Structure to design on (245 residues):
């Protein structure tokens, strides 16, 4: 199980959400963030903007879906064919356990699903 | 040490905070987020639509709006992971879809900025 965190342009969010929905990954969490990248922000004239607004999309997927989801996000979030600076980054982190609160079911990457007794 | 990331209903936040601090987990970070889940159908909405309420019918066609939620992030030592998870589940469980998810991820280190100390000692539950 992997958590895929993608930082994308705010105007590309609808695009990415639609693409993920179509690809069969409806579950997404969206967080507004500000940040800068390798280009150290944007310099316009004398002023440097280094807190550029972006959206962070969090989605947790099974390990075998990893490449497909990354490809989907990348295609949907890219500006034009070649992409541009500021299109964002995708980070992948392992998730060891996942709990669904409504049912109390615990899932692990090995595929076991057990109900947690409270 | 592990990072526990939970997505819960907004109106359960106060109860969750209280329950966590009662359980001895006082430090946490929370953020307003928008999200969508697997997209299970809301039965109350269907019932309403069957009874002919216009508001319910208007919402039927819309697929998967983003719903406001709270994202909770807590870093806890290994031995408190189960306690944290159980506390969050017991407070937030209503048995309906939309109750949220909890993810447990590995965290390699935690450093207190004030004292520059590292390791488990900067976390809750270790004295």
């Amino acid at each position: 199980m992997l958590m895929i965190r993608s930082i994308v342009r705010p105007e590309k969010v609808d695009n990415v959400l639609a693409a993920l929905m179509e690809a069969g990954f409806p579950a997404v969490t969206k967080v507004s963030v500000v940040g800068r990248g390798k280009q150290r922000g944007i310099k316009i004239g004398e002023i440097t903007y280094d807190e550029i607004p972006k959206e962070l999309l969090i989605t947790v997927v099974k390990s075998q879906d990893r490449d497909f989801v990354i490809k989907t996000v990348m295609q949907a979030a890219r500006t034009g064919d070649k992409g541009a600076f500021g299109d964002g980054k995708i980070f992948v982190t392992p998730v060891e356990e996942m709990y669904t609160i409504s049912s109390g079911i615990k899932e692990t990457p090995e595929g076991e699903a057990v109900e947690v007794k409270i | 040490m592990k990072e526990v990331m939970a997505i819960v209903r907004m109106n359960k936040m106060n109860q969750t905070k209280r329950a966590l601090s009662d359980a001895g987990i006082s430090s946490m970070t929370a953020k307003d987020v928008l999200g969508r889940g697997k997209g299970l159908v809301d039965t109350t909405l269907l019932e309403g639509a069957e009874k002919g309420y216009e508001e319910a019918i208007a919402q039927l066609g819309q697929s998967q709006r983003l719903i406001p939620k709270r994202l909770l992030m807590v870093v806890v030592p290994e031995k408190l992971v189960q306690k944290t998870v159980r506390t969050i589940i017991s407070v937030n469980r209503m048995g309906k879809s939309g109750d949220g998810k909890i993810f447990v991820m590995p965290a390699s280190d935690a450093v207190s900025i004030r004292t520059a100390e590292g390791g488990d000692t900067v976390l809750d539950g270790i004295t």
Summary: Residues 81-92 of chain B form the longest helix (12 residues). The longest strand of chain B covers residues 67-76.
